[in-house]
Design a protein that fits this description.
Layout lengths: L2 H19 L4 H17 L1 H17 L4 H7 L3 H16 L7 E6 L5 E8 L2 E6 L4 H12 L3 E5 L5 H17 L7 E3 L6 H7 L7 E5 L2 H10 L12 E5 L5 H13 L8 E7 H18 L2 E4 L1 H6 L4 E2 L13 E7 L2 H11 L4 E5 L3 H10 L4 E4 L19 E2 L7 E2 L6 E8 L7
Parallel strand pairs: 3-4, 3-6, 4-5, 7-8, 7-12, 8-11, 9-10, 9-11, 12-13
Antiparallel strand pairs: 1-2, 2-16, 14-15
Length: 418
């Protein structure tokens, strides 16, 4: 078969599987998920062997430290995949949930109910755990899923998908409810995202270039975020020790992810006290600072920040720092340069917090907490499908409900419209 025929065949199989999935009870789906988790646990040595192949190739091709971190499958990360699957199995099933019900004056009963999307295509890079996250969330919501990972993780993704398929089918999952595109040919992505007669939604997870390529080629609706330029603003009334801990976590805990802080804003009233604390932290954690003119007055060793820095997602131990006049200036900076992903204020003033929450136009806004919490698992959704900065259908972490649509169920007794 040609590549075009192969992808369309995968789409046909997914469509058929999705129509079987709609009849599965929550208990049946949860049994499938737990069998998937068992299979991952039983095959962890195979997963690590496959991942070692990918890591060896990635090191040889000069992949950055941040990308290598995303790619690596440790026992702890396999444990987290398994734990995430079991947590999803315990979550309420949104499929069939009644959103509202009303009876019209003519006696018609109208219900709005959650239903599966149908066939979901996931296109992603680097992180092998996405293979499991995507599959289990789709199965829980009675969707079929087509997975297409990056070439740098091909062996890991195939091994994970194989384990999920074997475990799931042993518990009664339709054979093609979880499929993975095995070719690394980029043309496969274009074929997949143009298959609007078989695929209902595409969710890209990866770098900005991947996501833009998907959007530019897609005929299928796309749920996405382009990048994560996340901010923390240290307000005039902030507890500076608390602020420093939040800044360290937001920047350093895992710098190569989309909810890591890329720009720090500091109120001028606390700059003289807080910026030297930041410099000590940066030296200890090996963070490169790039500051505005006002910031560099306090930290002369800091590199000058350019206009481009304010819109850059570093995904590395680099931090842009701007000293601002007040809360209004901080909000103005965020709404101008933010990617509308996740932004935080550290403050002791409830009025400042309220203003920040109301006026910052981002998918997740925080008071006195790290932006690193923007995550489906941390939000109690189980594993997430991704994070959306769109405003239609889904925004922020996409969990189970975001993988459903709805239908109107109308019951009558012979009513006709006059």
């Amino acid at each position: 078969m040609t590549l075009h025929e192969t992808i369309r065949h995968i789409g046909d199989q997914a469509l058929s599987a999705s129509r079987k999935m709609v009849n599965f009870s929550p208990r049946k789906k949860n049994a499938i998920l737990n069998a998937m988790a068992d299979a991952l646990d039983q095959q962890r040595d195979l997963l690590k062997e496959a991942n070692a192949q990918d890591l060896a190739q990635a090191m040889g091709s000069g992949l950055s430290a941040a990308m290598l971190d995303r790619l690596t499958l440790t026992d702890a990360r396999i444990d987290n995949m398994i734990k995430g699957i079991r947590e999803v199995s315990l979550l309420p099933d949104p499929v069939g949930k009644k959103i509202w019900k009303r009876t019209r004056p003519n006696g018609l009963v109208i219900e709005k109910k959650r239903v599966p999307l149908g066939v979901v295509a996931i296109i992603y890079e680097s992180r092998p755990n996405v293979t499991a996250d995507a599959a289990v969330l789709c199965i829980k919501t009675s969707n079929a899923v087509i997975l297409r990972g990056g070439k740098e993780a091909i062996h890991s993704n195939l091994a994970i998908a194989r384990a999920l398929q074997e475990g799931g089918m042993a518990a009664g999952m339709p054979k093609h409810a979880v499929q993975i595109v095995e070719t690394v040919d980029r043309e496969a992505v274009r074929e997949l995202v143009q298959m609007d007669d078989r695929v209902d939604v595409v969710i890209p997870r990866g770098g900005e270039s991947l996501i833009r390529a998907v959007v530019e080629n897609a005929r299928v609706p796309v749920l996405k975020h382009y990048k994560g330029v996340c901010h923390v603003f240290v307000d005039a009334t902030a507890d500076l020790n608390k602020a420093l801990a939040i800044v360290e976590n937001a920047k350093c805990q895992r710098p190569g992810v989309c909810n890591a802080m890329e720009t720090l804003l500091v109120h001028q009233a606390v700059a003289a006290s807080f910026l030297p604390m930041l410099a000590e932290l940066a030296a200890r954690r090996k963070v490169e600072l790039r500051g505005c003119k006002a910031t560099r007055a306090f930290l002369p060793a800091c590199k000058p920040a350019t206009e481009e820095d304010w819109t850059t997602e570093y995904l590395d131990l680099i931090l842009s720092v701007r000293t601002v006049k007040d809360l209004k200036a901080a909000i103005g900076h965020i709404n101008t340069y933010s990617s509308h992903h996740s932004d935080a204020i550290v403050t002791s003033d409830p009025r400042s917090a309220k203003k920040f929450l109301k006026e910052v136009d981002s998918a997740a806004v925080y008071v006195n907490a790290s932006t690193r919490f923007t995550d489906g698992g941390e939000f109690g959704m189980g594993a997430e499908m991704g994070i959306s900065t769109d405003k239609l259908h889904a925004r922020g972490p996409m969990g189970l409900e975001e993988l459903t649509s709805y239908k109107y169920v109308v019951t009558g007794n012979g009513q006709i419209r006059s």
